[in-house]
Amino acid sequence: MSRLLLAFVAVAGVPLATAGYAWLVELVVSWLPARTGRAVRPWLWMLPASAFLVFFLVYPTIETIVLSLYDATSSRFVGLANYAFVFTDPGMLGALRNNLIWLVFFTLVTVILGLVVAVLTDRVPYEAVAKGIVFLPMAVSFVAAGVIWKFMYDYRPPGAAQTGTLNAGVTAVGFEPQAWLINSPWNTFALIAVAVWTWTGFCAVILSAALKGIPPELLEAARVDGASEWQIFRSVVVPLISGTIAVVTTTMIIFALKAFDIVYVMTNGNYNTEVIANAMYKELFNYRDFGRSAAIAVVLLVAIVPVMLLNVGRFRAQEEAR
């Protein structure tokens, strides 16, 4: 009975509550003077969304900052000791270093490959099929992608039958099998390759949409003026889609900073592949240290917020330019 009641609330209760709130807002507005009603109506309509944001976003953020100033059991105030741990502990410094590697290589490779794929598929008659194939990994969850590539990277000692696809190919041409997920620092790049495989299709589709928005007349005019295809791409195409490139780059930077699923599934941060998000997970669920995990979460938040603010600033500048 409780499950039926919960299903009813989920299916019918939410729409009914929304309709009831809309009716109540308009009823309240009708009681007010016309000028006051027009001023109050938007705020009343925004009230539920604002309440959700405060309850599910603002309050948890503040609570996390407070927790980061206390010890493992949240019973003793320790000030900035947890932040000192984040920036002095050798393991955490390794995680920060790996996140920097993710930030640079993952972002560059995905955006560049996505742009290359978008430009090339834009010139072939089977464009939709090509984009579908490249985009297909996005339909797979990051956990599933990690499991798939863990089998791809699987390693067996020399002389044994290699079950991993990559090592099977390597040994077939006469080379020794490689422990792709163990040998540092190349194992970090092996994990980044999985993320690139997953995200390149997303970048390609978004950038391809931006390419479609370029007026063909501009490209034809450049060709008539004698510009080569490379010159057209560098001086016409890239400047016109720079806003979209910035948005895609921002998305990739945010993912690189909070990379977790692939690392957790494939190595769990072992063999010098630790990243910030996985370290936060371990501190909270493995070591039960609420203070340190909260401090790591705050550091991750502080790293992401400037990227978001930069993106918002670009959006505002583009709107003002229009």
Explain the layout of strands and helices.
Blueprint: H1 2-31, H2 34-67, H3 81-88, H4 90-121, H5 127-135, H6 142-152, H7 165-172, H8 186-212, H9 216-224, H10 229-240, H11 242-257, H12 261-266, H13 276-286, H14 290-321
Report on the structure:
This protein folds into 2 domains: 2-67; 81-321, MetI-like fold (Orthogonal Bundle), CATH 1.10.3720. By secondary structure, it is mostly helical. Helix 13 packs antiparallel against helix 14 (290-321). The chain is globular. The protein has helices spanning 2-31, 34-67, 81-88, 90-121, 127-135, 142-152, 165-172, 186-212, 216-224, 229-240, 242-257, 261-266, 276-286, 290-321.
Task: Label this structure with key terms.
single chain; 322 residues; mainly alpha; MetI-like fold; 2 domains; 14 helices; 76% helix; 0% strand
Compose a concise summary of this entry.
By secondary structure, the chain is mainly alpha-helical.
* Major beta sheet summary: none
Q: How would you sum up the global shape?
A: globular
What structural category arises from helix and sheet content?
Answer: mainly alpha
The helix tally amounts to 14
- CATH classification, class level of the largest domain: Mainly Alpha
Weakly predicted, low-confidence segments: none
**CATH superfamily grouping of the largest domain:** MetI-like
Domain count: 2
The CATH architecture category of the largest domain equals: Orthogonal Bundle
CATH-derived topology of the largest domain: MetI-like fold
Q: What sequence of helices (H) and strands (E) makes up the elements?
A: HHHHHHHHHHHHHH
Overall pLDDT level:
90
Q: What distance separates the N and C termini?
A: 56 Å
Helix content: over 70%
Strand content: under 5%
